[in-house]
TrEMBL record:
InterPro entries: AAA+_ATPase, ABC_SmlMolc_Importer, ABC_transporter-like_ATP-bd, ABC_transporter-like_CS, Mo/tungstate-bd_C_term_dom, P-loop_NTPase, Transp-assoc_OB_typ2
GO cellular component term of the entry, any: ATP-binding cassette (ABC) transporter complex
MF terms in GO: ATP binding; ATP hydrolysis activity; transmembrane transporter activity
Gene Ontology BP term (one): putrescine transport
Keywords linked to the UniProt accession: ATP-binding, Nucleotide-binding, Transport
A Pfam family of this chain: TOBE_2
Database matches in SUPFAM superfamilies: MOP-like, P-loop containing nucleoside triphosphate hydrolases
Domain ABC transporter residue range list: 13-243
Protein name: Spermidine/putrescine ABC transporter ATP-binding protein
Transmembrane segments: none
């Protein structure tokens, strides 16, 4: 289905040319993006890049200096937070410490004067969905981090918002629990079919959870796409480095390809710059005993790291990471051939500014 700009504005959350300054500092510079209804969208980027500021503007907790926000075709740029069909789960969870789990979840409906029967029905449904039924009578200090996180989610979801905003909601959890909650969150979002917008600086979290993601840097969106596309085809060096996905090889343009520390490498693509970077994923480098036809590099294996489903080789000259499943005849000290095939080499946009 093709989507014209008009249908995009009609059908989802659209952010158009949003700018936000704190005195002289530009926290957001001309940010535009579209989130489709029912989509799990992630804002990913390093600390201070403007993710939370953008989330707070969507929530109505902060006003943009310029630009517009549309939700379902309506301009909500100046609509107060309370009137938006949007709820936020904060990093700190912000639970009321003296209220029980049940009362925390019911709070929003009570203050909006919902009838008692409706409150009971909705709260019980959400507690059950998030596996909190047995904890309904506890207070926040009697809960683990993961349980508090689920209460915060239940409290936001009980209001049945069109859009749920999640500001690093998993940062307080340990690594194992975080992996579990990421999957739970993804499943929950699919089941509910609501729009979730997640803020995180954790690339693995973004890849697990998102239908689509935007990578941000210095108040701007650098690349938007589904996780596979961003992971496989980082647009520039910043994205490739931030996602930690590729070997980045400095190079100079020469006829037919580039000159690198590994010698001449033929490329399929045109190189638009004199000096720049080409990238190759560790698992896309082929390992062999004989020189390949094109782009062969002779290296010595210095170390082998077991990664569960594959092995990572460290080689000299380097740095070059190689991931392979066929390690058996390779020992440290051994010389091997690597093929950096032209079709696997990506020319990265220059972002050295
Ligand atoms: P983190 O991952 O660390 O939470 P972030 O990407 O969410 O970072 P923001 O919180 O959006 O970043 O902040 C973006 C920039 O704006 C930061 O440099 C921050 O210092 C600045 N900033 C945010 N709020 C204010 C404020 N109220 N006054 C001045 N500067 C601010």
């Amino acid at each position: 289905m093709s989507r014209s700009p008009e249908t995009i504005i009609e059908n989802g959350l659209a952010i158009r040319n949003v700018c936000k300054h704190y005195e002289d500092f530009a926290a957001l510079e001309d940010v535009s993006l579209h989130v489709a209804p029912g989509e799990f969208f992630t804002l990913l980027g390093p600390s201070g890049c403007g993710k939370t500021t953008l989330l707070r503007i969507i929530a109505g907790l902060e006003l943009a200096d310029s630009g517009q926000i549309f939700s379902g075709g309506k301009d909500i740029t100046r609509l107060p937070a309370i009137k938006r069909q949007v709820n936020t789960v904060f990093q700190s969870y912000a639970l009321f410490p003296h209220l029980t789990v049940w009362e925390n979840v019911a709070f929003g409906l009570r203050s909006r004067k919902f009838p008692a029967g409706e409150i009971k029905r909705r709260v019980e449904r959400r507690l059950e969905m998030l596996d909190l039924g047995a904890l309904a009578g506890r207070q926040p200090h009697q809960l683990s981090g993961g349980q508090k996180q689920r209460v915060a989610l239940a409290r936001a979801l009980v209001n049945e918002p069109d859009v749920l905003l999640l500001d690093e909601p998993m940062s307080a959890l340990d690594a194992r629990l975080r992996a579990q909650v990421q999957e739970d969150l993804r499943r929950l979002q699919r089941k509910l079919g609501r729009t979730f917008i997640l803020v995180t600086h954790d690339q693995a979290e973004a890849l697990v959870c998102s239908d689509r993601m935007a990578v941000m840097r210095d108040g701007q969106i650098v690349q938007t796409g589904d996780p596979e596309a961003v992971y496989d085809y980082p647009k520039n060096r910043f994205v490739a480095e931030f996602l930690g996905v590729a070997n980045l090889i400095p190079c100079t343009r020469v006829p037919g390809g580039v000159q690198t520390a590994f010698g001449f490498l033929a490329l399929e693509q045109e190189v638009p710059w004199e000096k720049g970077t080409v990238a190759i994923r560790p698992e896309w480098i082929r390992v062999g005993e004989h020189p390949p036809e094109r782009n062969g590099v002779r290296v010595r294996v210095t170390d082998i790291v077991y990664r569960g489903t594959s092995f990572e080789l460290w080689v000299e000259p380097g740095p070059l990471r190689v991931r392979t499943s066929s390690y058996r005849r390779i020992n440290p000290g051994r010389e091997i051939w690597l093929e950096l095939a032209p079709e696997e080499l990506q020319v990265l946009e220059d972002d050295t500014n």
